Amino acid sequence: MTSSSNPLTPAIKVQELYFGWPQGKPVLRACSLQVPRGQFWMVLGANGSGKSTLLRILAGLLPIQAGQIQLEGRVGFVFQNPDHQLVMPTVGADIAFGLVQDRLPLIEVRQRVNDALTAVKLQDLQRRPIYALSGGQKQRVAIAAL
What we know:
Structural class: alpha+beta
Largest sheet: 3 strands, antiparallel
Strand order of the largest sheet: 2-1-3
CATH class of the largest domain: Alpha Beta
Helix content: 25-40%
CATH architecture of the largest domain: 3-Layer(aba) Sandwich
CATH superfamily of the largest domain: P-loop containing nucleotide triphosphate hydrolases
Strand content: 15-25%
CATH topology of the largest domain: Rossmann fold
Number of strands: 3
Number of helices: 4
């Protein structure tokens, strides 16, 4: 049995993670956590405590300066303001953007877009302009595009 198929192996494991901005004090010092497979966790803390920094590191948006991270699969990240990551004019086009960049066949792109919209319960909004969505709908489009 491989470690990734062992139900006791955490989906996310962070050990002694360190991160500091240049010419600033450290944001994360000896940060450690384990998220069990199949669970949803929330990261809570005061402003400036390093929550967003930790999540950006897990998503690969910031480098690891010290420590270790083990991830089972990929980590997606939705910014607090989803407008910062929605790049196309319509819902369907935004979800399809990365798939087209990966040069998938058009029929597969269409199926994946449909599946993603169904997963976030926005299947009727495929042709809706991004600017016409609510904040929550924009967050769901960002999740579907991951």
